[in-house]
Write a structure and sequence with these properties.
Layout: E1 4-9, E2 13-18, H1 29-43, E3 50-55, E4 59-61, H2 66-70, H3 74-92, E5 98-102, E6 105-107, H4 109-115, E7 119-123, E8 127-129, H5 143-151, H6 153-162, E9 166-167, H7 168-174, E10 179-181, H8 186-199, H9 202-215, H10 220-234, H11 238-248
Parallel strand pairs: 2-3, 3-5, 4-6, 5-7, 6-8, 7-10
Antiparallel strand pairs: 1-2, 8-9
Helix pairs in contact: 1-3, 4-5, 5-6, 9-10
The protein binds coenzyme A (COA).
Coenzyme A binds near residues 26, 105, 109, 132 and 135.
Length: about 260
C-alpha cells in the first residue's frame, strides 16, 4: 500500500504523487482507493490553495491497470471503469485549481486524469494519448468529452480513432498542454506556477474556476449569470478589501482566504 503521497509545501500547495512506479502508476482498484482518500483530505483542508498532481518514476500514469483488468468478468470491468471515472470527476470537482505535472507516459486513464486538471505541463520526454481504441475499448473516464471540449471535435476524433501516441511537443501543438519544459525543470516550473496562483485571492481564484467550469459549453446569457453569481461571492470578502488597500498602499496584498 501507500501508493499515493500527499505532501504540503509553502503552507498552501498540495502535491499528490502517484507512487506505483513498477506498474507505471497504473490505476488499480487499491490505488484508486488511495487517490480517493487523498482527494477527501484535500477537500477537507481549507488552507490549501492549489494542488499539483504528478507521478513518480518514468510514468505519470499508464491508465487502467491492464494486468488487473485481465482477470475481471464483464461486470467487474464496468465497475472498474466507473470507479476510474468517478475518481477523476472528484478530482475535477475540487474547489481549488489543479495542475498536472506530466513527468512521463500518460496513456488512457492517465491522460484522462490530466484532462480533469485545470492546467497541464509536461516534460520533454513525456508521451501521451487516448490509446483505448487500440485495446478494443473507448475512453470511459471522460476522455471523449473532455478532450473534445479542450481541443475541438475534429482533432479529438482523429486522436481517439487512431489511438495516437503524441510527444509532449505534439500535445502542446494540439492544445492539450499549456507548457513543455526540460524534465529536470518540471518540478520547479510547476511549483512556480502554483506559488503564483497561491499568492492571489484564494476565494477569487476558486470562484473564477467555478465560473469557467460551470459556464463553459452552455449558452452565453446563462454563463454570464453564473459569472456574476461567482463575482458576488467575492464582494463581501476581507480579501477584496485587502486587495484594494494593498493597491493604494503600493504593497503586495496578503490574502487570508476570508
Ligand atoms: N497496466 C498495468 N501494467 C502496466 C501498464 C498498465 N496500463 N502499463 C505498463 N505496465 C507495466 C508493464 O506491464 C511492465 O510491467 P512488467 O515489467 O511486469 O512487464 C511495466 O509496467 C513497464 O512497462 P513496459 O511496457 O515494459 O515499459 P515501456 O517503457 O516499454 O513502455 C508504456 C511503457 C507505458 C509506454 C507501455 O507499457 C504501454 O503502452 N502501456 C499501456 C498504456 C495504455 O495503453 N494504457 C491505456 C489503458 S486503457
Amino acid at each position: 500500500m501507500n501508493n499515493v503521497k500527499l505532501d504540503i509545501t509553502d503552507e498552501h500547495i498540495g502535491i499528490l504523487t502517484i507512487d506505483r512506479p513498477d506498474s507505471y502508476n497504473a490505476l488499480s482498484n487499491s490505488l484508486l482507493n488511495e487517490i480517493n482518500d487523498s482527494i477527501e483530505k484535500i477537500e477537507g483542508n481549507d488552507n490549501l490553495r492549489v494542488l499539483i498532481v504528478t507521478g513518480s518514476g518514468k510514468a505519470f500514469c499508464a491508465g487502467a491497470d491492464l494486468k488487473e483488468r485481465k482477470n475481471m468478468n464483464e461486470q467487474q470491468v464496468l465497475a472498474a471503469v466507473t470507479y476510474i471515472k468517478e475518481t477523476i470527476n472528484k478530482l475535477e470537482s475540487l474547489r481549488i485549481p489543479t495542475i498536472a505535472a506530466i513527468n512521463g507516459a500518460a496513456f488512457g486513464g492517465g491522460l484522462e486524469l490530466a484532462l480533469a486538471c485545470d492546467i497541464r505541463l509536461a516534460s520533454h520526454q513525456a508521451k501521451m494519448g487516448l490509446t483505448e481504441t487500440s485495446l478494443g475499448i473507448i475512453p470511459g473516464a471522460g476522455g471523449t468529452q473532455r478532450l473534445s471540449r479542450l481541443i475541438g471535435i475534429g482533432k479529438s476524433k482523429y486522436l481517439i480513432y487512431t489511438a495516437k501516441r503524441l510527444t509532449s511537443f505534439e500535445a502542446l501543438e494540439y492544445g492539450i498542454l499549456e507548457k513543455v519544459v526540460d524534465a529536470e525543470e518540471l518540478n520547479d516550473v510547476t511549483l512556480e506556477i502554483a506559488r503564483t496562483i497561491a499568492q492571489n485571492g484564494p476565494i477569487a481564484v476558486q470562484q473564477a474556476k467555478k465560473a469557467i467550469q460551470q459556464g463553459f459549453n452552455i449558452d452565453l446569457p446563462k454563463a454570464l449569470e453564473i459569472e456574476m453569481a461567482c463575482y458576488k461571492q467575492t464582494i463581501p470578502t476581507e480579501d477584496r478589501y485587502e486587495g484594494i488597500r494593498a493597491f493604494q498602499e503600493k504593497r503586495k496584498p496578503i490574502y487570508k482566504g476570508k
